[in-house]
Write a structure and sequence with these properties.
336 residues; alpha/beta; 434 Repressor (Amino-terminal Domain); Rossmann fold; six-stranded mixed beta sheet; 16% strand
Length: 336
């Protein structure tokens, strides 16, 4: 096919789509400044005409890992998992910080098109449709590492069993004899926060125990949230004898609040965290927690994105890994 015939074909497509030739060019080049409706109309016409894009060049040796924030104690497990698999495949990792916990910022997509990685691993709850279309148009596969949200079924993602984790944490405290159990989960707008609380509710309900709405708190997954809610829960006459914190960092915040109030774990209050970050074994007392397999989640996501890049078909679009209870010294039976 000559250059002239390609121009005519693209002009025909532009006329049928009622857009400019420049807009068709933007779609072909994966530009982000095209609406989803227009992009879909042009893509459909390109497919109908049997137009084949020239191969999209990539760095051939780069996997991009994208966070909304780099929190060392938590993110390092993700980074190590991605690096281990990438290195074994002869690839390097570039680390990008962008956006909010829900999605990367708008300027990120232009940067990733310039870097042309083999694939992208994102640590977000979701990825906007327009970004997905751009990455698809440039043949850049992506997978979401999703400990914190619930992407749509057609988005490749790796997560963990949040409901089971909340259930296990609360059952452990119940089996120790606790009945006044509070819970501090993550932000109210994140699916995993509600899933962990649903597990807590299920365990409490199965035990025939009432659930005080004021004993369920939505925090921020950071020490500040644990400290703030911990102080409020523990500085009351009917304080709980145990607290399930939806992250290890929040559990550390609760421990700090306990020290400020002259309380000790587990003598006065038992505490269970979530994630099993390395720091959980360095504090005193060592933290009982729910092990979320962060490093394995990162490994599986990286393997998946590499398989997608190599054109190996995969039927798995969502993989949820099991969580486990790790019992240490921060929990014990309540004092009589």
């Amino acid at each position: 096919m000559t250059d002239q015939s390609i121009r005519v074909t693209l002009q025909d497509i532009a006329e049928q789509a009622a857009v400019s030739l420049a807009t068709v060019s933007k779609v072909l080049n994966g530009r982000a400044d095209v609406s989803a409706a227009t992009r879909g109309r042009v893509e459909d016409l390109l497919s109908q005409h049997g137009y084949r894009r020239r191969g999209t060049p990539t760095s051939s040796s780069l996997v991009e890992l994208v966070f909304h924030e780099l929190e060392a104690a938590w993110s390092m497990e993700i980074i190590k998992g991605v690096e281990d698999v990438a290195r074994a495949a002869g690839l390097s990792v570039v680390l990008t910080e962008s956006g909010s916990r829900h999605a990367p910022a708008a300027d990120w997509i232009d940067g990733v098109l310039q870097r042309r990685p083999v694939g992208v691993v994102l640590v977000f709850s979701a990825i906007p449709d327009q970004y997905r279309e751009v990455l698809k148009a440039r043949s850049i596969p992506f997978v979401i590492i999703d400990p914190a949200g619930d992407p749509t079924p057609d988005v490749p993602s790796v997560g963990s069993a949040n409901w089971s984790g909340g259930l296990m944490a609360t059952r452990h405290l119940l089996e120790l004899g606790h009945r006044r159990i509070a819970a501090i989960t993550g932000p109210d707008d994140m699916m995993c926060s509600h899933a962990r609380i649903d597990g807590y509710r299920s365990a409490m309900t199965a035990a025939g125990l009432p659930i005080d709405p004021d004993w369920i708190r939505f925090g921020d997954f950071h020490t500040s949230g644990g400290r703030l809610h911990g102080q409020d829960l523990l500085d009351r006459d009917d304080r709980p004898t145990a607290i399930f914190a939806g992250s290890d960092l929040q559990a550390l915040g609760v421990l700090e609040a306990m020290r400020q109030l002259g309380l000790r774990a587990p003598d006065d209050v038992s505490i269970v965290g979530y994630d099993d970050i390395p720091l959980a074994t360095w504090v005193s007392p060592r933290l009982t927690t729910i092990h979320q397999p962060l490093r394995r989640m990162a490994e599986e996501a990286t393997r998946l994105v590499i398989r997608m890049r190599e054109g190996r078909s995969t039927e798995v679009t969502r993989l949820d890994l099991a969580t486990d209870l790790v019992v240490r010294e921060s929990t014990a039976p309540p004092r009589a």
